[in-house]
Amino acid sequence: MARYTGPKTKIARKFGEAIFGPDKYLSRRNFPPGQHGNNKRRKTSEYGIQLREKQKAKYTYGLLERQFRNLFVKAERSKGITGEVLLQLLESRLDNIVYRLGIAKSRAAARQLVSHRHITVDGKVVNIPSYSVKPGQLVAVRERSKSLEVIADSLAGFNHAKYPWLEWDESTKVGKFLHVPERADIPENIKEHLIVELYSK
User: Fold this and answer.
1) 197 to each of 47, 55, 161, how far by Cα in Å?
2) Is 124 helix (H, G, I), strand (E, B) or coil?
3) Region (Disordered) spans which residues (predicted)?
4) Does residue 98 contact residue 113 with C-beta atoms inside 8 Å?
5) Which stretches does DSSP call E strand in the chain?
6) What's the first-to-final CA gap in the chain, in angstroms?
7) For residue range 114-162, what is the model confidence (pLDDT) as tens digits?
8) Mean pLDDT within 56-68
């Protein structure tokens, strides 16, 4: 599946945030990459600010332009506030839920676990990271994959209570998608209204 495979710290520096998770290099070089990254830059245009927000959302959730655009169109056709619905659709992706449940330490790692057939939904193996999980469905680690060290390390000490829309049973390694999260519960620092404004032009 097509995805961004370049240097992640460089992208995090571009946005000034650790959008891929903890980044020890970002704290050392917390200015934009490039020859003039540490110099004052001219004021960014309104379009530039909107584009930057869209790019940040794409990199955060690991989507390319076509996937992201398709999700936006789906959000636009749905009931509710378009920007919030967009984030809810992103949060409902299987790779994101695997990450939120603590089964993987990053969304990239979660995507790999899904692609390599280590994850089940309602008891059936699903190897499509973009699969949209519905409220009430069970997301679990496949029986023969429960002993994988990478999964055990990720789950060790993970606080499952921080995401109220998810439930986790440690003994069975099964999580439940209780309901679509409210915008206030989604921790990502994304100004979704700017994305809506960009696509509305």
Assistant:
1) 9, 14, 34
2) strand
3) 26-45
4) yes
5) 119-121, 124-125, 138-141, 166-169, 174-177
6) 30
7) 999 999 999 999 999 999 999 999 999 999 999 999 999 999 989 888 9
8) 92
Specify the 3-state DSSP secondary structure of 148: coil
Q: What is the DSSP letter of 127?
A: -
Closest by alpha carbon to 137, among 95, 97, 101, 177? Answer: 177
User: In degrees to the nearest 10, what's the CA dihedral of 179, 185, 188, 192?
Assistant: 80
Give helix 46-61 / helix 8-15 axis angle, nearest 10°: 140
DSSP string, 6-37: S-HHHHHHHHTS-TTS--HHHHHS-S-SSTTT
Amino acid at 158: F
- Between CA 144 and CA 75 the distance in angstroms is 37
pTM for the whole structure: 0.82
pLDDT surpassing 90 at residue 103: yes
For 24-43, the pLDDT digits (tens) are 545 555 555 554 445 556 67
What kind and span of H or E run contains 98?
helix 94-100
What b-and-e string marks burial along 58-88, b requiring 16 or more CB atoms within 10 Å of the CB? bbbbbbeeebbeebbeebeeeeeebbbbbbb
- Token readout for 70 is 């398709």
Tokens of 157: 């000490």
